[in-house]
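Reading a protein record of the kind used here takes only a little practice. The integers have meaning only within a learned vocabulary of local backbone shapes. With that in mind, consider the following protein and its fold in token form:
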Amino acid sequence: FELLFFIVGYQSSRLFGSAPEEIITFLKTKNVTFNNHHSCLSTEEYHNNEALKKFYRLLSTNRDKEGKKQFVSTIEAYDYPFYGTQWHPEKNSFEWAREAINHSKEAVLVTQYVANFFVDQARLSGHRFADKKEEENALIYQHAPVFCLPEKTYFEQCYFF
């Protein structure tokens, strides 16, 4: 788990601009972000890539486990509803197989904030199914979850299509 180091101006971003102050405080001061990765985009690589800087706004950074390499941890596109995190906002509420995942009230509130934000973003889309039958066929409920841990993946449940 890591703290997010916010970039100056993050408050005017879509992702964090409407976040309650307590969510920002949790992200800044408590280990509520689960980082489980081996590859990342360093801040140096981000700053040296003009196309990337023009397309994505840097919102936060983190440091690797040794505290040496600084990497991009949260970005959002300037002109599109595209977002990226190098942390797992979903795991605090939904992954229980790893003891390192924080399930505290604060961690779950962060997960809920991010989930609500993304659902609100999806609601802005004008895309709709042609009819009720097409919508029903696309629902996740048409597929059964499979318990996958630890034989198949690091995830507890998987959906196979």
